[in-house]
TrEMBL record:
Pfam families: CERK_C, DAGK_cat, PH_CERK. This is Zgc:158263. One of its GO terms (molecular function) is ceramide kinase activity. GO terms for biological process: ceramide metabolic process. The gene is zgc:158263. One of its GO terms (cellular component) is membrane. Residues 122-272 form the DAGKc domain. The lineage of its organism: Eukaryota, Metazoa, Chordata, Craniata, Vertebrata.
Length: 584
């Protein structure tokens, strides 16, 4: 196959002559200049060629084609370091080539297009795009039409665009409407919009497979359609953690070339009913309170989280709870190993092997997907009880612009596990130190009141007497660092048998909505504060407090490739400047 696609000839770029070679996997051109001994070769992987057009083509400020007989234009991915962000910015590179004859020009365009088809099998041809016009700074529509649509057009992708008119419209569409002919689904918005696509696609796939999503023991069917994210939200955590930058052009280019990144998903259940799915933050206590408070200030846009974060921090709350978790195999990886899950991650690759290819009848990736679930009886559950500032579970690092390394910097995107972070009640300054470390490279787990565990499943319950939500004296939430003072016990028990400590405090019933509406500063000025927090599930407030969570390895696939290791990437320009032939 490779030899069929090989083509080599002289080509001109401007008035300079180049030797151009297409090997199948790569398209290279090297300047032919006898005086220039330091011959620089530009090498573009065929998989990163965005489009090939006859003539001299530009696409900005609008598409213009100078339809000359002997010219062709190649558009491809160029990388730039992105300053503040961890990942690399992708931009559209463009080179206009001239050939000595029309026949050679036609040979080049034909070979390049054939190579593209052969080496990029997952490139989408038709996409279903949902734009949330109200996400983030409300720029979703503009971002799509001015930046993304021209790139899709250049790449020959046709899209059906739906600008949403209500919450959950995208989810419902994916659950009920005809999806035939689409290769992927794209959201233009934030983590909430991504979550709608996630729920729609997972639900649809299970319906079609005849599987029941309510049962946490059921092995779910991986979704056949890829998800693309054009970031236009407030936190944009899923995009940041899978691409490394918040940049619509970079994300559009990952979609165009058909990148594929599997992602673990956590299903959240209560009493054998599915409550929600989560990929990034499932957080009780601080993060739940921040979300509940922020909903009242949506008009502030993304700033609502900074404001609410400050208010919730000042309210100085902690909550009683019992956490049961099923640890993952410590031989596979550890949340404290100070590694990063980067593009081509070996831990995730080994997990693919374990999740999909180990069963006896391993055939296709999807058909052998029923060997991954470890039932309660197989593992050794651990139970801890006490007062927590926050309890968080994340299937990935959950890095975002606010926290460039994320909630759990060494978590993996696709290893079939999640990281459980327990922050015990502590002094306000201690908690501030924990939060502050998320903004730097300091280890937020290296604190005496913080624990992190790599897990396959988690259960959260309230101490007996606190099953109903209520209020208690603020005195009971005051800071405590040592185990005796905070009054928790840790038990290791088989088959989920648990030992509980009775908790003190008086309760009064309330609903999750009431909890969310509790004046946040009551921790500072009043004697009562809620005894129960809410769960923040990827930006949604869950209606339940006692939950049962299970990680499903590699349940969905994104048009992404994980964060690229800058050191390992060669064609990366130092800074993003105006000198190169970039279009966007
Ligand atoms: C003293 C400095 C404190 C800085 C604390 C930084 C901690 C940041 C960790 C953020 C993890 C974010 C995980 C993602 C959550 C999103 O799903 C969710 C909804 O996003 P969106 O749909 O875009 O609105 N975002 C949040 O819950 C915001 C959490 C902010 C916490 C301060
Ligand atoms: N047209 C709409 N009107 C109101 N809410 C919407 C609409 N479209 C989507 N939503 C909801 O808005 C929420 C927030 O959207 P998102 O795009 O994540 O923005 P942000 O990151 O600013 O929260 C999502 O949970 C989604 O369900
Ligand atoms: Ca994971």
């Amino acid at each position: 196959m490779e030899t069929d696609l090989r083509l080599e000839s002289s080509l001109w770029v401007g008035n300079k002559r180049y030797r151009a070679v297409l090997t199948g996997w790569h398209f290279n051109w090297t300047e032919v200049d006898k005086k220039n001994r330091d011959k620089k070769t530009i090498s573009v992987p065929v998989a990163e060629v965005v489009g090939v057009e006859e003539g001299r083509v530009e696409i900005l400020p609008q598409k213009s084609v100078e339809d000359t007989d002997k010219d062709f234009t190649v558009f491809y991915v160029k990388r730039f370091s992105s300053g503040g962000s961890y990942g690399l910015l992708w931009r559209l590179g463009r080179t206009q080539f001239s050939c000595p004859s029309r026949a050679l020009r036609d040979q080049w365009t034909k070979h390049l297009r054939t190579a593209l088809k052969t080496h990029s099998p997952l490139r989408p041809h038709r996409l279903l795009v949902f734009i949330n016009p109200f996400g983030g700074k409300k720029k979703g529509r503009k971002i799509y039409h001015s930046v993304v649509a021209p790139l899709f057009e250049l790449a020959g992708i046709s899209s059906h665009v739906i600008v949403t008119e209500r919450a959950n419209q995208a989810r419902d569409h994916l659950l009920k409407k005809d999806l035939a002919g689409f290769d992927g689904v794209v959201c233009v918005g934030g983590d909430g919009m991504f979550s709608e696509l996630l729920h729609g696609l997972i639900g649809r796939t299970q319906q079609e497979a005849g599987l029941c999503e309510n049962d946490p023991a059921v092995t779910l069917q991986p979704c056949p359609l890829h998800i693309g994210i054009i970031p236009a939200g407030s936190t944009d955590c899923v995009c940041y953690a899978t691409v490394g930058v918040i940049d619509p052009v970079t994300s559009a280019l990952h979609i165009i070339i058909g990148d594929s990144q599997p992602l673990d998903v956590c299903s959240v259940h209560q009493a054998s009913s599915l409550v929600h799915y989560s990929v990034s933050l499932l957080g009780y206590g601080f993060y739940g309170d921040v979300l509940a408070e922020s909903e009242k200030h949506r008009w502030m846009g993304p700033l609502r989280y900074d404001y609410s974060g400050t208010m919730v921090y000042l309210s100085n709350r902690s909550y009683a709870g019992i956490v049961h978790y099923l640890p993952a195999d410590p031989q596979d990886s550890s949340p404290r190993d100070r590694t990063r899950c980067l593009s081509g991650c070996s831990v995730c690759s080994r997990s693919t092997e374990r999740l999909f290819h180990q069963s006896s009848d391993s055939g296709s990736l999807y058909s052998s997907h029923n060997s991954q679930y470890t039932s309660d009886s197989e593992g050794e559950w651990v139970t801890v009880e006490g007062r927590f500032r926050c309890v968080s579970l994340t299937c990935m690092s959950s890095s975002c612009p606010k926290s460039p390394l994320g909630l759990s910097p060494s978590a993996h995107l696709a290893d079939g596990t999640g990281d459980l972070i327990l922050v015990w009640d502590t002094h306000p300054l201690g908690f501030l130190k924990f939060l502050y470390r998320h903004t730097s490279t300091q280890d937020q787990f290296d604190l005496p009141f913080v624990e992190v565990h790599r897990v396959k499943a988690v259960r959260f319950s309230l101490p007996s007497g606190k099953e109903e939500e209520g209020y208690e004296d603020m005195g009971a939430t005051s800071s405590a660092i040592d185990d005796e003072e905070r009054g928790y016990i840790e038990t290791v028990s088989r088959n989920g048998s648990q030992q509980y400590l009775a908790e003190r405090g008086t309760e009064r019933r309330t609903t999750n909505e009431q909890k969310a509406a509790t004046p946040i500063l009551c921790g500072l000025c009043c004697s009562k504060a809620p005894a129960v927090s809410v769960w923040n599930c990827d930006g949604e407030i869950l209606p339940n407090t006692e939950i049962d969570c299970r990680i499903h390895g590699q349940l969905v696939r994104l048009y992404a490739r994980g964060i690229e290791d800058r050191a390992a990437v060669h064609n990366c320009s130092e800074e993003h400047d105006n000198k190169c032939e970039r279009i966007f």
